[in-house]
Write a structure and sequence with these properties.
The chain has 448 residues and is α+β, with helices and mostly antiparallel strands. The protein has 10 helices and 16 strands. The termini are far apart. Mean pLDDT is 73; it is low at 1-8, 36-45, 76-158 and 322-334.
Length: 448
């Protein structure tokens, strides 16, 4: 602490380069572990690790903020030597929601856990505005001090809505998921007598003006899109006068990512049918000047319908932006998206357009046919370099059925061109080629 004979020993996150308080163990922005190697061997703290990117996170974390993968428990090498030290961000002893707020356990569906997760074991990362302030010159807050803070401002991850009613008509039933920007709840609309999804912004982001603008823009953007293959937005509001939320239709089914993880490569007809529907939804969004920018299997929901299986619903336009006339809400040079589905121009900070989405769609087509993404690596940097420099591996590398080649090879090769001018220029053009390729495959099989 300056002025008291001590030097300012702030820590710096190796991943995002932000300044952190002296007592920080994890970066509050991206979850990167920042403690010294000597500390990590002696503190015995229980940790969780992302199975996808390998980063370590505190025990209270549920999902990786980088790729949204569920975290698994692990322990440091010194966990048997000493008992774990209490985290300065841990919930105070005895802090728990009323028992009446916990609904009875229900069978797990594709989009919900077997039991609602208790949010009292999670804590908000450090706010970006705090990083720019002088508070990091002070001593780290003790757990009792944190308890006083949460008592004064009980919001975000500590704000469990299960069992409560919003606006007198939305009865919150369970938690469907949690991401870096929002918590997603399943609720029942008592007046319309139907299930809905309520997406509530994480409370710790409320002081971040850009994050609030992005969330509000998602609401307005998605509300403009009226298409059978895009999730429908019903309502928008604010909790406690400051926490924005979005009400959307409830989709009973599973994500395309879960389907591929469970089933592996999909049959030609199934894969083509899904891609064709995605193209139709994208064409609607692109026609009003909206691009998604984070298209991936986890953002493609497959609805269970009696009249047709695998009905596509595109979700999460949270980082989308209007092609023309929109203020960019991300800092220049900062990557937005998921490494496996990033288009080369996103890495060069060049203007993005609808062809960025079509590149990601080419990756998704490859993955549905092989069960693997074309560009893999041990690090995000390695994957991104392949997007920039390497052509996609042939489909036959992953499946002997493609040894003789298929019409889909040409579609993937065109969709994944490094230069946007050499790719498909519209989602409709992409869809027509997929429909033609499927007809050729089916005709060839029927002629045998």
């Amino acid at each position: 602490m300056k002025g008291s004979g001590q030097t300012d020993k702030r820590k710096v996150c190796a991943s995002c380069k932000r300044a952190l308080p002296p007592g920080a163990v994890f970066c509050g922005f991206d979850g990167t572990r920042v403690e010294d190697s000597a500390e990590s061997k002696t503190n015995g703290q229980e940790l969780k690790q992302c199975s996808k990117c390998g980063k370590q996170f505190p025990a209270y974390a549920q999902f990786c903020p980088n790729d949204a993968s569920k975290l698994t428990e692990m322990k440091s090498a010194g966990s048997l030597a000493e008992p774990p030290k209490p985290s300065p961000f841990a919930a105070p002893p005895g802090f728990a929601p009323p028992q009446s707020a916990q609904p009875p356990a229900q069978p797990a569906g594709p989009f919900e856990p077997a039991e609602p997760r208790d949010l009292t074991d999670t804590a908000p990362p450090i706010d970006e505005e705090l990083a720019r302030s002088g508070d990091f010159g002070k001593e780290p807050r003790k757990p009792t001090q944190m308890a006083e803070i949460f008592e004064e401002d009980n919001q975000g991850l500590f704000h469990n809505l299960i069992g409560k009613k919003i606006e007198g008509k939305y009865e919150v039933q369970s938690i469907l998921g949690e991401g870096g920007m929002a918590i997603v709840y399943k609720a029942y609309h008592t007046k319309m007598e139907r299930l809905v999804v309520i997406k509530v912004m994480q409370g710790w982001l409320l002081s971040n003006k850009n994050a609030v603008e992005r969330f509000e823009r998602e609401s307005k953007t998605t509300a403009k899109l009226a298409h059978p293959n895009i999730v429908t937005v019903f309502d928008y509001g604010v909790l406690n006068g400051k926490e924005p939320y979005l009400v959307m239709e409830y989709i009973k089914g599973e994500s395309l990512g879960d389907k591929i993880a469970r089933q592996g490569a999909l049959p030609f007809a199934t894969a083509a049918g899904i891609i064709i529907q995605i193209c139709r939804g994208l064409q609607e969004a692109h026609s009003v000047g909206i691009i998604h920018r984070d298209l991936k299997p986890d953002n493609i929901l497959l609805q269970d319908r009696s009249d047709r299986p695998d009905w596509v619903k595109i979700v999460d336009f949270g980082i989308s932006h209007l092609v023309q006339g929109a203020k960019r809400l991300t800092k220049t040079g900062k990557m937005v998206g998921t490494p496996e589905y990033i288009a080369p121009e996103q890495l060069k900070d060049k203007p993005l357009d609808i062809r960025t989405d079509l590149y990601a769609l080419g990756i998704i087509l490859y993955e549905t046919l092989t069960g693997r993404v074309p560009f893999e690596g041990e690090s995000a940097e390695g994957i991104l370099m392949k997007h920039l420099l390497e052509p996609p591996p042939p489909l036959s590398m992953h499946n002997d059925d493609f040894a003789e080649g298929t019409p889909f090879d040409a579609i993937i090769a065109k969709a994944l061109r490094k230069e946007p001018d050499e790719r498909y220029q519209t989602a409709t053009e992409f869809r027509l080629d997929v429909e033609e390729a499927l007809n050729k495959v089916l005709l060839k099989r029927n002629s045998k």
